[in-house]
Specification:
Blueprint: H1 18-42, E1 49-50, E2 61-65, E3 71-73, E4 76-77, H2 80-93, E5 98-103, H3 109-122, E6 126-129, E7 132-133
Length: 135
């Protein structure tokens, strides 16, 4: 007979939970990183191309204007009236708020300027228009 560490008939009764917790934490981190990108990709906005883009230090307010005229603020569809209420609270908390407007290339320009005027009148300090980097 070969030698073994356990006596005949004994089984391992302890389950090592540490590797399971490690794997679950890694999967959680992967989901936390990928979900914002997935949500952003679901909003189909064809932004124009540009030669440069700037990165902000704190998370800016993201406004998406689709070709159909729907407007989303941080992935939630809103109307002008709802946006005024929402923005007034956000600007009180973050007076140096920055906004990035991603308008579809085919979106109504009047609607885009209406939202730019709203953001400016509500006190947003910096408004940027999103674009894709050109070839």
């Amino acid at each position: 007979m070969a030698a073994s560490n356990h006596a005949d008939g004994d089984s391992i009764s302890d389950i090592n939970i540490v590797p399971l917790v490690d794997i679950i934490l890694v999967v959680l981190i992967i989901f936390m990183v990928t979900v914002p990108q997935v949500v952003r990709q679901q909003l189909e906005v064809d932004v124009p191309t540009g030669s440069a883009s700037d990165a902000a230090d704190e998370k800016p307010l993201e406004v998406f204007i689709t070709e159909a005229g729907s407007v989303y603020i941080d992935s939630q569809e809103v109307s002008l009236a709802e946006a005024e209420v929402q923005l007034s609270g956000v600007i009180k908390e973050r007076p140096e708020l920055q906004a990035i407007v991603s308008a579809d290339r085919s979106a109504d320009h009047g609607l885009v300027f209406e939202w730019l005027d709203l953001l400016k009148s509500m006190g947003v300090k910096s408004i940027s228009l999103a674009s894709k980097k050109g070839d």
